[in-house]
Amino acid sequence: MKKNVRLIEALIPVIILIILLIINVKIFKDDATYGPNQLALFFCGFVACLLGVTLQKVSYKDLENVAISSIKNSLQANLILLLVGSLIGLWILSGVVPTMIYYGIQIISPKFFLPTACILCCFVSLSTGSSWSTGGTVGIALIGIGAALDIPLPMVAGAVISGSYFGDKLSPLSDTTNLAPAMAGANLFEHIRYLLITTVPAIIIAIILFTIVGLNYAPTDVDLNKVQGFLETINNQFKITPFLFIAPLFVLFLVYKKIPALPSMLLGAILGGILALIFQPHLLDSNSYKTIMEVAADGFKSDSGVKEVDKLFSRGGMSSMLNTVWLIITAMFFGGMMEACGYLQKIAGVLLDFVSGTGSLILATITSCVFLNITASDQYLAIVVAGRMFRNAFKQRGLAAVNLSRSLEDGGTVTSVLVPWNSGGAYFSGILGVPTLSYLPYCFFNILSPIISVIVGFLGLYIRKGNETA
Fold first, then answer.
1. At what angle do helices 140-148 and 96-107 cross, to 10 degrees?
2. pLDDT band at 223, cuts 50/70/90?
3. Is 300 helix (H, G, I), strand (E, B) or coil?
4. Residue 350 lies in a domain
């Protein structure tokens, strides 16, 4: 950290950013993430830069290099986003997504749709270790089913995200589940065992809440004629067959076998193009290659004549993800400038001054993770920086490393999706088509996890003593 960094100096870019973001939401509402927020992040990054050059006497070139390095760290996520955009478009063209929705509407009861969606995503994410893959495959289909059943999409998105992050947090195949104990110095499976203490109660309460909320959408509330018309429109526009389930099963198998996300998504998109040639030739022009490439680039355009169906299926393509990519780049630029000036470290370090016991230490750790998710805009950076900063503090207080690793997951992994400009929030908002601030109140699991973790800390329950790394 740079010397003589004052707290007020470190807070100036953050305060300006918060003010601009509030103004953007008030004026632009859901459209705030389509340009205004990106400009706010970019501007506040330069505010941090100006303070660093004038007050910290750091050369602009050094600050720029750190900011660019920060952006480089997000390139993999951006490439995945672009491929997911293509995959969505091609999976609609091939009939994969319509087939999943067609059968799902007939199987899932509206009354128990929300808890069922959450539980389904729990199993998929637990087996794959990826919240992004779960949301980009099963999540998209569930959004379509929810739309057909007239269930508010923010609720559906909340159920999808809650279930998706359950597995992302617990699965040994998850990158964050491996990253947190690595930063804390804990054993992976001991880390998972201690995570169960806060994670299981959080998901049980979330499922109960989804059940209660879902009871307001009994089958009698659904216009059955509308649902039947919806199904007939899908069946008329696409060839529906169970064979199309091969695409999501193939991608989930690749993820389960620990094939990296980029090649997994690329192969899934290619398979979607092949399935389009086999099952949906009527949707292809005389030049099939041209149609497939256009859909991969700009998405599928539905023209069934039914507004609800066309809105649902007119989506996807790399171009649909460009706004999200722009958001992530500007967010990483801001986070990079804040880190290069020593401002992130200063703000997080101040929290240590308020630590007096185990509960307050866990609270400080989780608060730092949330703060870093807001300012650095990346869950991995939140886990790495907070883990590096609090590791000695846990050790000095005679607390085992699993206490820190659990706090990093409870505060860092699950809250990233609640921040509109964080890579997690931008991703799920982009693929599900629901603004982050709209689905946030229904992400019960993500909200409950850090709260339960803090309660456990202050009550002194399941706090492992000892400096060993387990």
1. 50
2. low
3. strand
4. no
